[in-house]
Amino acid sequence: MTKKIIILSGFIILKFVLQYILLSPEYDLQRDEYLHLDQANHLAWGYLSVPPVTSWFSYLIFLLGNSVFWIKFFPALFGVLTLIIVWKTIETLKGNLYALILGACCVVFSCLLRINMLYQPNSLDILCWTAFYYVVIQYIITKEKKWFYIGAIVFAFGFLNKYNILFLLIGLLPALLLSDQRKILAEKKLYFALALGLILILPNLLWQYNNQFPIVHHMKELAETQLVNVDRIGFLKEQLLFFIGSFLVILSGLYALLFYKPFREFKFFFTTIIFSLLVFLYFKAKAYYAIGLYPIYIAFGAVFLSEILKTGWKRYLQPVFILIPLLLFIPMYNLAFPNKSPEYIFQHPEKYKKLGMLRWEDGKDHALPQDFADMLGWQELARKTDSAYATLPNPEKTLVLCDNYGQAGAINYYTKKGIKAVSFNADYVNWFDLNVNYKNLIRIKEFEEKSNELHETSPYFQTSVIAGEITNQYAREYKTTIFVFTDAKININTRIQKEIKEEKNYSK
User: Fold this and answer.
1) Residue 440's closest CA among 480, 385, 499, 479?
2) Most buried residue among 92, 177, 226, 409 by CB atoms closer than 10 A?
3) Nearest CA-CA partner of 281 in 235, 228, 239, 225
4) Rounded to whole angstroms, how far apart are CA atoms 4 and 39?
């Protein structure tokens, strides 16, 4: 085993270990994770929330036992593969051992630790961006046409994971057209590769077509409810924070792309990042959408620095560039991860607020960072729903109807009673089982000051009662209430069909 392999293996082990120890057991899974896991029970070529790849991994997790270990393993694995691709890129660019170690430190001790903490499409999205750029570099160096087809497969897989990868092409194509590498676009096999990529994503495109392109509605809703609160200046500030420990390395990479002769063939990568960031700014994208841009620039910067720090007094700066991401990881460790109790964060909000971490998608500051608040209260909800379900005379004829996908997904993940909770929110609108003649209703309702669910719904049932609520004050679902209605006076199934139809018409 060579020295390089031993060092790389050490970084891989470190990355996996960190991903598991940075999570406090006080926290549950995050609301999005429950939805993604539930997709394993409804395999399809598309969903209202995400493309299909996440469901494939969810099904694999299900086969492996659906434990938290495996749920956290796959985003950690995608982070490790990102690390490996950056390592291989540095080798391809003729980087020495110092460049490899520097690049690995910059990737490991970065915002990827937080991204790879959650089972969401983002980890795989970043991996696909990095892999695609690696393919481009390999083609420019080798001129081997096989890289066109590998690139098509990588892009198609990335597209089937998260549509965000379209921004990669939007930034890359104009950069290519303005560079000497525009000759790539005249290669015949490039278009065969494009055809292959189109074939691979076609099932998802057909699903979108057959379902009246829900992605359009999803993006419109996102723009109206979340992106409207995005501050463009804040977007740029967050770009600096994502890889703050490797900022000088990335900056060195950008400089090298303009002035370092061995990188002259890759000069278009400089304009690629400019075009990509401008497009993200124009659409007021969330800051983390752009994270996939940066790992490849770490590779450029690490190789460049390894050359200019070789001799003379400059060689004494080599450990400095490695220590920076390590030292800056310390405050990151104390703030960016759910490894502090909710009570501690509530009592020490100053640093969190200063970094904007308490600002949620609604544009307001709250007690905890939104991701952390989204990881509380779910087991309590499932336990109390199970208890309410167990008291019913005909539980198999009970509809468990939730306000949002997090509630439904969490109940379905933790339930001991085999409950299949649903919602008119997100993908759950397509997952109602209308073969059951429902007689009872368990209604999971978000807390609203003016809401009077008991008064409004009880006339349609023989009995009604409040069975419980979430009592964790730090949870985003705090005061979410469980209502139980039994012996319906109306046809519940007819009401469901009407609501589903109205929801789908609204989506159109």
Assistant:
1) 385
2) 409
3) 235
4) 40
pLDDT for the residue numbered 222: 63
- Rounded to whole angstroms, the Cα distance separating 131 from 78 reads 11
**Residue 451: pLDDT over 80:** no
Q: Is the pTM of this model over 0.90?
A: yes
How does the average pLDDT of the chain come out, rounded? 92
The answer to whether residues 119 and 37 touch, using CB atoms and an 8 Å cutoff, is: yes
CA 73, CA 244: separation in Å to the nearest integer? 25
Residues 193-201: contacts with CB under 8 Å, at least 24 apart: 193/148, 193/149, 193/151, 193/152, 194/152, 196/149, 196/152, 196/153, 196/156, 197/152, 197/153, 197/155, 197/156, 197/159, 200/152, 200/153, 200/156, 200/157, 200/160, 201/156, 201/159, 201/160
Q: How far apart are CA 339 and CA 335, in angstroms?
A: 8
Which amino acid, residue 53? V
User: In this structure, which amino acid lies at residue 136?
Assistant: V
Distance CA 457, CA 371 (A): 32
Q: Is the distance from CB of 337 to CB of 116 less than 8 angstroms? A: no
Residues 6+ apart with CB under 8 A from 349: 358, 367
The confidence score (pLDDT) of residue 159 equals 97
- Rounded to an integer, the average pLDDT of 441-453 is 84
Determine the pLDDT at residue 170.
95
pLDDT at 504: 67
